[in-house]
Write a structure and sequence with these properties.
Keywords: Nitrate assimilation. This protein is an all-alpha fold. The chain has one domain (23-209): TorD-like (Orthogonal Bundle), CATH 1.10.3480. It has helices spanning 27-40, 46-50, 52-59, 64-80, 82-93, 103-108, 113-127, 141-150, 154-161, 164-176, 181-190, 197-209; strands at residues 130-132, 227-229. Strands 1-2 form a two-stranded antiparallel ribbon. It is globular, with a radius of gyration of 18 Å. The chain starts with 26 loop residues before the first helix and ends with a strand.
Length: 233
């Protein structure tokens, strides 16, 4: 038996994801980038595929470092087709802990702290004058991106930026498996403040260890109630 066939007892320490230099965006550009990322990270239904032409045109109006990854992602989705893309989506986001689209999961896992963290998101939406109106938990990344896109309140950008660590862990996991969705998450990182060294070290810890694993019942939260303004209620 070749010694290379034996199970390794030590492995190389995982590296931090490459640091990205944020792209200078005005408010309108950032809103469009976040809305595009929000829509492209949703589950790829027939309707999702039907609007790709529109999303591609919108992406083309953004600075090149944002536009190119989005257009590449859209081209790959078209080439794969709906059946293959849906299967890849499920395997990527529903079966891998480090590819969660729920931001509080990276910091709290399925622990008792997560309930409080989810409520914090709801309170942030309400403080900016919006209410959650969807069958998703309040920390669902596409929802948080939509909030950042539609709300002019600084709270919306602060909420997203405060969970940059989780976004970076998601990016690192997706890039590590050469997932096409890494290109979409990359545009989010490029649109947010730069990651400092301490944040990058915390990201590495999460990449290496994963989120906390204490399992508790969160059924009391139910399916927390895309957004509507209070004025529409």
């Amino acid at each position: 038996m070749s010694i290379t066939a034996l199970k390794n007892r030590v492995t190389r320490k995982q590296a931090l994801p490459d640091a990205l230099v944020p792209v200078k965006l005005n408010r309108n550009e950032r809103s469009r980038a976040h809305m595009l990322a929000s829509l492209l990270l949703d589950y790829p239904t027939e309707e999702w595929f039907a609007r790709l032409d529109v999303l591609e045109r919108e992406a083309s109006t953004l600075p090149t470092p944002i536009a190119d990854p989005l257009r590449t992602f859209i081209a790959e989705a078209r080439a794969a087709g709906i059946d293959t893309w849906q299967k890849q989506y499920v395997v990527t986001f529903d079966m891998k802990r480090k590819c969660s689209l729920y931001l509080t999961y990276f910091a709290t896992g399925d622990t008792r702290k997560r309930g409080t963290a989810l409520v914090t998101f709801i309170e942030a939406y309400r403080a900016a004058g919006w209410e959650v109106d969807a069958d998703e938990l309040s920390d669902y990344l596409p929802m948080v991106l939509e909030f950042s896109a539609v709300s002019e309140d600084p709270i919306s950008e602060a909420l997203l930026a405060s969970h940059l660590e989780g976004i970076e862990v998601l990016r690192a996991a997706l890039e590590g498996m050469n997932s096409p969705w890494a290109q979409v998450v990359r545009t989010i990182t490029l649109s947010l403040p730069p990651v400092d060294r301490k944040t990058r070290e915390r990201v590495l810890a999460l990449v290496t260890e994963g989120p906390p694993t204490e399992t508790v019942g969160l059924s009391f939260l139910g399916n927390l109630p895309p957004f509507k303004s209070r004025e529409e209620s």
